[in-house]
Specification:
The chain is built from 3 helices and 4 strands; from the N terminus they run E-E-H-H-E-E-H. With 98 residues, the protein is α+β, with helices and mostly antiparallel strands. It is extended and about 45 Å long.
């Protein structure tokens, strides 16, 4: 990873595998992001929010509203469950959240 200064901003260059680039492009399409960088900013903001609440002792959950049984609640109790150091794949996420 390389970092370059740019008038108060820093340029970060990250190398992704083709699968991750494809995922970035899919997420840009789904979210209306105008660039891969914007997708990454969204992701970092979301991770910051999740981390803040996990640090306070909360679990972060996704609930399917039309279902009320416990099987429809997806819970993450710590970021480490997502594969530590962010080496995760969609398959990893499916294991954690199912």
């Amino acid at each position: 990873m390389s970092i370059k200064n740019d008038a108060g901003r820093k340029r970060v260059q990250i190398v992704f595998t083709e699968d991750w680039v494809k995922l970035l492009d899919e997420l840009a399409e789904k979210t209306g992001a105008t660039s891969r960088a914007e997708v990454i900013r969204y992701a970092v903001s979301l991770l910051d929010w999740v981390s803040m609440y996990l640090d306070k002792g909360y679990d972060v959950v996704a609930v399917k509203e039309e279902e009320s049984d416990e099987g429809k609640v997806k819970r993450i109790s710590n970021i480490g469950a997502l594969g530590g150091r962010f080496r995760l794949t969609r398959k990893d996420l499916e294991k954690v959240t199912s």
